[in-house]
Amino acid sequence: MRAEALEQLLAERVKKLEIHNESLRQSTENSIPSQLCNAATTLQILHDVLHSQSKYGKVHLLDPEMVESVQTFEQDVAYVKTNVEEINLEVLQGRNVKRDQIVQRWQ
Predict the structure, then answer these.
(1) Can you give the residue range of the structural domain that contains 18?
(2) Max alpha carbon distance in the chain (Å)?
(3) What is the pLDDT of residue 51?
(4) pLDDT in single tens digits along all 107 residues of the chain
(5) Calpha distance 39→51 (Å, rounded)
(6) Can you tell me the distance from the alpha carbon of 48 to that of 35, in angstroms, rounded to the nearest whole number?
(7) Is the dihedral of CA 34, 35, 36, 41 positive or negative?
(8) CA-wise closest residue to 59 among 19, 38, 70
(9) 93: helix, coil or strand?
(10) d(CA 26, CA 39)
(11) From CA 10, how far away is CA 16, in angstroms rounded?
(12) Burial class of residue 102 (count of CB atoms within 10 Å of its CB; 0-12, 13-18, 19+)
């Protein structure tokens, strides 16, 4: 009887140890990729910071959406620049008789 109770107690403890071992294995396997990803991101940021002051290094943005936003913004700026260059400022700077008359009345 006593041997059976000890065997049952031993089996329960072995089962608990196996469960703890599996839990530890799963948590380790889940956390390692996350830590490696964070380390790779940190390394890339440090690399970019080191090269940002150098005229020989090129800085890469980590976020692809940010890169796309910057490219879209650059295209918009180029479009506006070409449209501004096409504006004839002489027409805008010319005298407007009607405006001058209105200003004269209010003075």
Answers:
(1) 2-106
(2) 118
(3) 73
(4) 888 888 898 899 999 999 998 888 888 888 888 888 888 888 888 877 777 777 766 666 667 787 788 889 999 999 888 887 777 767 666 677 777 788 788 77
(5) 18
(6) 20
(7) positive
(8) 70
(9) helix
(10) 20
(11) 10
(12) exposed
Rounded Cα–Cα distance for residues 39 and 52 (Å): 20
DSSP string of 35-65, one letter each residue: HHHHHHHHHHHHHHHHHHT-SS-----S-HH
Instruction: Determine the Cα–Cα distance for residues 71 and 64; give it in Å rounded to an integer.
Output: 11
Q: What does the block give as tokens for 32?
A: 């390692």
Structure tokens at 78: 């180029």
The answer to whether residues 45 and 62 touch, using CB atoms and an 8 Å cutoff, is: yes
Give dist(CA 51, CA 44) in Å, integer: 11
Number of domains composing the chain: 1
